[in-house]
Design brief:
This protein has about 300 residues and is an all-alpha fold. It has helices spanning about 5-25, 30-40, 45-55, 60-65, 75-95, 100-110, 110-115, 120-135, 140-150, 155-160, 165-190, 215-230, 235-255, 260-270, 270-275, 285-310. About 40% of the residues are buried.
Length: about 300
């Protein structure tokens, strides 16, 4: 690597890590929760005891348990968060045609809600990004999916976007399966089983998502672009576009379970990086609709973060 590029990349990452720490200490919704998680895990009789007694994914539980022997709760969070942020930055630099532009968008869209807050999802999203930008054998994809889902179950969406070569069949099966899961959640959280308080997806009980908010409508516009320009996309772009389509579809399916719906939609937006930043930009009226939609999403998140900071 050329010295100037190395200096540039080092400074950008230091700035990104500093923002992560800043957001964690100011607007993070889950940082305090991870302190409680740390205490639960560290007080367990052993790693397997922690896995059995708590609902957290086994990979994350094991990682936190072993790090707890040498680090404090806050140190554990920051060490893991900054390390996975570093891995993502390396992936962007290696596999994207416009890595710096993509990284600026990542900073705005994902550092506040993932790396500085939802650590389990942030870990899983690292593997998701890697699989979006590379090709692996079926066995490799399955193994990486298993590893990612051990840190957050949302990573199972990898199987779906890997089936981008059969989009209609995959979407139909996804919607059918999603409806079954959604109905199952209704039963499990109803008067018979009364498991509402044990499911993280039901933190907003008796509420639904806003189906026609700015983000979902902008994402819908990107989906329309992908559908009408599917044949002109390369294989990497198709994976990204398909993830966005799948994510928005499931967002509507799980609308009565906001915790699940928002998490899936957030993760599906990772598809914008292979879709828009892995190949040469071709500006035309179709692509401008997509870039305009992305701009609206980025602007919305930027204003939201500023508003949260002002409220402190």
């Amino acid at each position: 690597m050329k010295p100037l590029l190395f200096i540039r990349d080092t400074l950008i990452f230091i700035f990104s890590a500093s923002l992560l720490v800043f957001f964690t200490g100011t607007i993070s919704n889950d940082f305090v929760q991870y302190e409680l998680i740390f205490d639960q895990i560290v007080n367990s009789a052993g790693p397997m005891d922690a896995v059995i007694n708590f609902r957290y994914e086994p990979g994350f539980t094991m990682l936190y348990y072993f790090l707890s022997s040498i680090l404090t709760a806050n140190s554990t969070f920051f060490v893991v968060a900054i390390f996975i942020l570093f891995l993502k930055y390396l992936i962007f630099l290696k596999y994207l045609r416009y890595p710096i532009s993509a990284w600026i968008i990542y900073i705005i869209l994902f550092i506040p809600v993932l790396d500085a807050s939802q650590l389990r999802t942030a870990i899983a999203s690292t593997i998701i990004i890697y699989l979006l930008l590379t090709f692996s054998s079926k066995t490799g994809v399955i193994l990486k999916t298993i590893v990612a889902s051990m840190f957050h179950y949302v990573a199972l969406i990898i199987i779906l976007f890997q089936a981008y070569k059969k989009p209609i069949l995959t979407i139909a099966m996804t919607l059918t399966f999603g409806l079954l899961i959604n109905n199952l959640l209704k039963v499990m959280t109803g008067d018979i089983f009364k498991l509402a308080m044990h499911l993280s997806s039901t933190t907003s009980l008796n509420k639904t998502v806003n189906y026609f908010n700015v983000i979902s409508l902008s994402q819908l516009a990107i989906c329309v672009f992908c559908i009408f320009n599917w044949r002109s996309l390369d294989e990497i772009q198709k994976k990204g576009g398909f993830l966005i389509i799948i994510g928005l579809s499931l967002y509507f399916i799980f609308g009565e379970n906001p915790g699940i719906a928002h998490r899936i939609r957030e993760v599906s937006l990772l598809g914008i990086f292979p879709l828009l930043f892995s190949n040469k930009v071709n500006f035309n009226y179709k692509s401008m609709v997509t870039y305009s939609s992305l701009f609206i999403i980025v602007l919305y998140h930027f204003v939201y973060v500023i508003d949260e900071l002002i409220k402190i």
